[in-house]
Amino acid sequence: MQVSRRIAWNAVTNWVAMVVHAAIGLALVPFLIGRLGREGYGLAALAGVVVSFTAVADLGLRGALSRHLAEQVALDNTRRFNELASTALALYLAIGAALATACFLVADPLARAFRVSDALLPDAVFLIRWYSSVSIFLSFLLPLFGAVVISNNRFDLRNYIVTGTSLLRGALLFAVLGLTDTGLYGWAVVGIASLAVQFGLLVITARRLWPAMEMRLRHLSWYAAKALASLGSSLFVLQLCGMLSVQSDPIVLTAFLGPSAVALYEPALAAAGAVRPVVQTLAEQLHPLATDLHVTGRQEELQQVLLRGTRYTLLMGVGVSVLLGVFAEPIMQVWLGRRLGPEYLVTAQVLVAWVVVDLFNYASGSLGPVLVGMNRLKFILWTQVPAAVVNLVASIWLVGYTRLGVVGVVIPTAVIGIIRRPVVSVYVARVCGLTARRYFLESYLRPIAVLTMLTAAAFGLRWAIGPASWLSLGACAAALGVSWAGLAWGIGLTRADRQAFRQLLRD
């Protein structure tokens, strides 16, 4: 299959996977709040945060491994491929086992640090000791086999697995929690089971894609470890910054406002997160292609990956950002008004703040994959590290010492993103041999025009319809979707873009 068709099919299957995952996630939020209670739901979210925090301890191996395996696939170097995979497996096993053991041992004091009520303290200890520990270990094995699949540019196969396990997890949660009184214990068992199924499917798929793959002691290599550490150290710092900037939010909220505050924050994050992977589908699958173009010296094609990838990603992001931003309040009222009462307004405010954050992240487009493919991340680190520290300090101050409350954790992230995005964009343009003017005109000008007109149309729809039900919200979303499609096609895309899409559809 030619590259353009492979990318298109990867994108389509990823969109399907994300739509399924998002639909299940959105349906589960009110169900879980009802079955687990607000504090129980917040506790379940915190158990997931414990797992996500440990991801940074892989020292950037996940991203580095995908990039280096993609390079060996492009060069058809089986020996180096096996050295990288075997060395990564040994590192994953060691780090994952150590972190899982540590989590098991500190479950009780960690649960108390979350300020959980006495009634739920045993459940909190159980979740951290068993759910978080097992999930941590599995989460350090999943990326290895996922990287093998991704390095072969078979995102579609990974997407099939994600879709299937999402459906399985959703069905099991509705069945187990709806038919039994197992509560948080049932939630934990279903979560671990779905992770185990996903791991097994990834192992089978990886071995079929790369039959020559061998993970053995004799393939352990100092060269492979050094290569992984070189890129991984940069990615590690970026992951750490992401943890300080975003993943620390539930911890900050819990420390000052208690677990119930997470129940106001988490739905907004879930709503934004539901569409985020759909928008970033194209960008996330470009790093194998960017790596191939860089190592084979095709500079002009790499520039087009940056220009067109950024334009397409931002155009997709404009549509969902306008929808969630303009209709945040009616969405939360219809979705969670009965569960949260008047406090749904707080969740709506958090959603608007996250929309601003995500819109500027969408503006990065294919910037990340291109820099990873070129192994040029130092400048990003120099700007990201101080920004993350400022973000965390500002979040603590705004939540703990002002009246902003829950929304205070997101405001610093939004402000820093607005300031930082132009600086990084100018840098990546120069690295790729482009002028900042050309990068702006070809990647940003058209999407900005679409954003302006679509925002005006969205406010008009909200005024005219005044959505107060899922049906009226659906009507607004449909009308806005049609407007976005017309604007994106007629204004957002260039003539060359439209010709390329027509050719792709004909083929």
Short description:
With 507 residues, the chain is mostly helical. It has a domain of 223 residues.
Mean pLDDT, rounded to whole units? 83
What is the distance, rounded to the nearest whole angstrom, between the alpha carbons of the first and last residues?
11 Å
Would you tell me the structural class of the helices and strands?
A: mainly alpha
Kindly state the percentage of residues in helix: over 70%
Computed over alpha carbons, the radius of gyration is: 23 Å
Quick one: how many beta strands? 0
Count of individual helical segments: 23
Low-confidence stretches: none
Shape: globular
**Major sheet details:** none
Q: Percent of residues in beta strands? A: under 5%
Order of helices and strands: HHHHHHHHHHHHHHHHHHHHHHH
Structure description:
The chain is an all-alpha fold and 507 residues long. It has a domain at 1-223. It is 84% helix and 0% strand. The longest helix is centred in the first third of the chain and has 52 residues, at 3-54. The model has no long low-confidence stretch (mean pLDDT 83).
List keywords for this structure.
mainly alpha, 507 residues
